[in-house]
């Protein structure tokens, strides 16, 4: 199946190297769309994105301006000569977008998770072989679902395909809004090496401060481009305001990015190091979650006049961890050291709560 995808996919070199797509999360008004687009054009951006039909989690929030925004996008194209891109989730969206001259369609993470919806989009695209379609990863970390969506489009004759990595949904509070799980886009690249692969650091990070690092990591890993949200007035944005940057900031971010040589060994080493970085970030998040539960226990112990250290409980945890660790190729000694450090910090935080109130940090 992968070799079928391999054979015909176009490289999209003509869109830039790296390909940079930017624009607001949502089109909100004609003025916002045109102002942002002109500023992006001045910043050297050639592909303008804006969401019209927004897949929002809750029904009460801003759902996008819909069809009305197509005219604004068409105006951007006329006035700035940029290519225009929007998200489509239904055959009606596809038809309207194509009629309005949209150059690049992207399929959002929630839609890619639904094969019925992807098939409907693929079917309506039959015969529109010139259109470029970018496929985000599905919200859940399922590489086959991602590949399946690309294959459905390929089977409909679409050859100008690209994938966008935007991270995966998680339950709970983490550093990033969506977990990058870099091993998944890396595996996609391994299976379909000619498929252009973009990274969306805005949706992975969820906060604008993460965009520079995530973008650099993506380029270091060999991604072919970036898909970054920008807005002329991010703090007033109607969706995703924390993760949008002004076109001016975007320009600064892009100027600082280092495009490295792609020698085989260094790419491989980067990939491995990025996996290590991801593991370290995961470790930190798990530890922080554990400490937060531990602080809740501290509050309970304070209220019920219990002692902080309960040796039998720690003993049980340690034995269970040692036995699990041996099955996972880690030594008893190593796990003892790790657990002892973790336990020590837990105890320190709880003692702090018992003596100084609830803020243990
Ligand atoms: C978007 O790019 O605006 C968007 C909705 O993204 P995702 O599908 O990745 O959530
Ligand atoms: Mn968004």
CATH top-level class of the largest domain: Alpha Beta
Strand percentage, roughly?
Answer: 5-15%
Q: In the CATH scheme, what's the topology name of the largest domain?
A: TIM Barrel
Provide the helix percentage.
Answer: 40-55%
- Could you give the order of the helices and strands? HEHEHEHEHHEHEHEHHEHHHH
Per the principal axes of the C-alpha atoms, what is the gross shape? elongated
Structural class: alpha/beta
Arithmetic mean pLDDT: 92
Provide the CATH architecture of the largest domain.
Answer: Alpha-Beta Barrel
The counted number of beta strands is 8
The total of helices stands at 14
- Main β-sheet description: 8 strands, parallel, barrel
Bound molecule kinds, no repeats: phosphoenolpyruvate, manganese (II) ion
Q: Please give the radius of gyration in angstroms.
A: 24 Å
Give the full name of the CATH homologous superfamily of the largest domain.
Answer: Aldolase class I
**Regions with little confidence, pLDDT below 50 for 5+ residues:** none
Distance between the ends = 52 Å
Topology:
Blueprint: H1 2-8, E1 19-23, H2 30-42, E2 47-49, H3 68-80, E3 83-87, H4 91-99, E4 104-107, H5 109-112, H6 115-124, E5 132-136, H7 143-155, E6 160-165, H8 183-191, E7 197-199, H9 201-205, H10 211-220, E8 225-229, H11 247-256, H12 264-303, H13 311-327, H14 332-356
Parallel strand pairs: 1-2, 1-8, 2-3, 3-4, 4-5, 5-6, 6-7, 7-8
Helix pairs in contact: 2-3, 6-7, 12-14, 13-14
Phosphoenolpyruvate binds at residues 25, 51, 55, 87, 108-109, 136, 166, 203.
